């Protein structure tokens, strides 16, 4: 015979909840929380926490134009991590080495956790094949991969959904390599 016991969920205050019982977000609360995040960023971060990068974006006519955008750097994500009391830990790390023993590519998986137990795992790579990385130290390859994974985990956990400045070079390279690959493949 199996005995079952009904365990009641603890009652929570409706003021701070973003989700209603039927899992439909309370739009007003969600907007208030997003506004609070924007206010936090304006008060906590300064110009040194951003990197200006020129990216290509489509304009209203579908033409690609160069646009200056600002991306949060490692210092910004560390400040936000502290403000939200986020704990980070390395879950996995893999290194690919050359025949001479140098680090060719580094992979990191980082878990970010809030005090309430909610967590996110994010991973990232850094490779010597990226533009400007061919002559850097092994440490630079490893720390860049770790920084990318950490920043990404923090951003995903707090719901910012932003790309960090440290990822932009890698994304540009991926886009360039994909375009080059597609051109070579179609010829």
Strand content is: 25-35%
**Global morphology:** globular
Distance between the termini: 70 Å
Report the total helices: 4
Largest sheet: 3 strands, antiparallel
For the largest beta sheet, what order do the strands appear in spatially?
Answer: 3-4-5
- What is the oligomer described by this structure? single chain
The Cα radius of gyration reads 21 Å
The string of secondary-structure elements, in order, is HEEHEEEHH
The percentage helix is 25-40%
The total beta strand count reads 5
Low-confidence segments, given as residue ranges, are 170-187
Mean pLDDT: 81
Helix vs. strand class: alpha+beta
Outline the structure in words:
- It is a single chain.
- The chain has 187 residues and is of the alpha+beta class.
- 38% of the residues lie in helices and 26% in strands.
- The protein is built from four helices and five strands.
- The chain has helices spanning 27-44, 74-83, 138-158, 165-186, and strands at residues 50-58, 64-72, 87-97, 103-113, 119-127.
- The strands form two sheets. The protein has a three-stranded antiparallel sheet, with helices on one face. The chain has a two-stranded antiparallel ribbon with strand order 1-2.
- A hairpin with a 5-residue loop joins β1 and β2 (64-72).
- α2 crosses α3 (138-158).
- The N and C termini lie far apart (70 Å).
- Mean pLDDT is 81; it is low at 170-187.
């Amino acid at each position: 015979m199996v005995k079952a016991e009904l365990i009641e969920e603890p009652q929570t205050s409706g003021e701070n909840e973003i989700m209603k019982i039927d899992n439909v977000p309370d739009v007003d609360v969600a907007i208030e929380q997003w506004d609070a995040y924007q206010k936090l960023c304006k008060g906590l971060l300064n110009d040194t926490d951003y990197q200006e990068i020129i990216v290509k974006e489509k304009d209203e006519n579908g033409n690609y134009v160069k646009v200056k955008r600002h991306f949060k750097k490692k210092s910004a994500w560390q400040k936000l991590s502290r403000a939200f009391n986020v704990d980070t830990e390395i879950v996995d790390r893999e290194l690919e080495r050359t025949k001479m023993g140098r680090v060719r590519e580094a992979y990191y998986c980082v878990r970010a956790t809030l005090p309430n137990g909610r967590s996110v795992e994010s991973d990232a790579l850094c490779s010597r094949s990226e533009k400007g990385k061919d002559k850097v130290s092994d440490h630079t390859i490893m720390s860049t991969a770790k920084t990318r994974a950490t920043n990404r985990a923090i951003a995903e956990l707090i719901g910012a959904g932003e790309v960090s400045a440290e990822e932009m070079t890698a994304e540009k390279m991926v886009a360039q390599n994909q375009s080059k690959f597609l051109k070579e493949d179609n010829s």
